[in-house]
Write a structure and sequence with these properties.
By secondary structure, this protein is an alpha+beta fold. It contains eight helices and 20 strands. A hairpin with a 2-residue loop joins strand 12 and strand 13. It is elongated and about 80 Å long.
Length: 367
């Protein structure tokens, strides 16, 4: 087990900055997920951790030891690739045991270790098969076994489930999480899939355009998004984001826009200011006829099985989504009035996109 520290890690490809001044500390035994859209730099960052790509600047520390210029074989890190990278002519047993043969272990040692790892990954009955005889999920477990067999200090995984169908992804996701709990090893896992991040991570590093937008537990990044980007990236449907303004009315703060008038639950008397209002679809509820809130017209209703999502036109150009247990009792064309608890409203600065602090004082941008 290992602690991985990145200090100001940067990577340029010519005039393009793929990774810009990243500072991350992956604790011993943590499941750290690097999450973000395609092209945000997360795989480049992982490859610099593994030693497969030299950084332009910054350092990589492994248990406090500077390994920035140490080759991959000297870092005691196991890499699991998206493509599995199995040897097609070798059996499952020989694929798993390959790292041990490369290190000159005896046949008896290799056989015992391969059988142990195969038992952990439920591959014991498949050791004589070739990769072409396996399903996608089984091949992924073989790739995991090859990483696991040499007992590395940490596992680095680059979108290992992206080639699997949705059912296999769900099953293998649970297997990897269970493996992490069993081993207590450090996992650094790259994905663009928010479901994988939310269900597997102890902490999420959300990246955008080569930089870190937010680091926190799944609950923190979902419930307290640090920016408009984080708010819009996480969630299905994504957070409703509307240009609005904060006003003081009778000593109480309210947020208003066309078709929207919601209390913030804060006593204050401050000048009006523009904001971006964010509300998660699941935090909107149908309000009473006389209540202030969000006024709109239902455009469509989607049936998700146990839930429904209603898409609502608000004002002349606004759109909001409401998500709740089926049936919501709404149909296309229905006028609707919605509301949300003050504690579920998120405010962002319209210029910087960063989250605004609004606890019990005037709305100000964080320092």
């Amino acid at each position: 087990m290992s602690r991985i520290q990145l200090e100001g890690l940067t990577r340029h490809f010519g005039s393009v900055t793929a990774v810009n001044d990243i500072w991350i500390d992956a604790d011993d035994g943590e499941f750290l997920v690097l999450l973000g859209p395609s092209g945000c730099g997360k795989s480049t960052l992982l490859r610099m951790m593994a030693g497969l790509l030299p950084p332009t600047g910054g350092r990589v520390l492994l248990d406090g030891r500077d390994v920035t210029h140490t080759p991959p074989q000297g870092r005691d890190l196991a890499m699991v690739f998206q493509s599995y990278a199995l040897y097609p002519h070798l059996s499952v047993a020989r694929n798993i045991g390959f790292p041990l043969r490369a290190r000159g272990r005896s046949r008896a040692q290799i056989k015992a270790r391969v059988e142990e790892v195969a038992s952990v990954l439920d591959l014991s009955g498949l050791l004589d098969r070739k990769p072409r005889q396996l399903s996608g999920g089984q091949r992924q477990r073989v790739a995991l076994g090859r990483a696991l067999v040499r007992d590395p200090g940490a596992f680095l995984m680059d979108e290992p489930l992206s080639n699997l169908d949705s059912k296999l992804r769900s099953t293998t996701r649970a297997e990897i999480s269970a493996l992490h709990r069993r081993l207590g090893a450090t996992f650094v896992y790259v994905t663009h899939d928010q479901v994988e991040a939310m269900t597997m991570a102890t902490r999420i590093v959300l990246m955008n355009e080569g930089a870190v937008e937010q680091v926190g537990t799944p609950e923190q990044v979902y419930d307290e998004p640090a920016s408009v980007f984080v708010a819009g990236f996480l969630g299905s449907p994504a957070m409703n984001l509307v240009e609005a303004g904060v006003y003081a009315a009778d000593g109480r703060l309210r947020v208003r826009s066309e078709g929207i008038d919601l209390p913030l639950g804060i006593d204050a008397d401050v000048p009006a200011r523009p904001v971006v209002l964010g509300i998660r679809p699941e935090h909107l509820v149908v309000a009473g006829e006389g209540d202030a809130g969000v006024r709109g017209v239902v455009s469509t209703v989607e049936n998700l099985g146990s839930e429904e999502v209603a898409h609502v036109r608000v004002g002349s150009e606004g759109r909001m989504s409401l998500r709740g247990p089926r049936p919501l009792g709404l149909r296309a064309g229905d006028p609707v009035r919605l509301t949300a608890p003050p504690g579920r409203l998120h405010l962002f600065d319209p210029d910087s996109g960063r989250r605004l602090a609004w606890q019990a004082a005037p709305v100000t941008a964080p320092a």
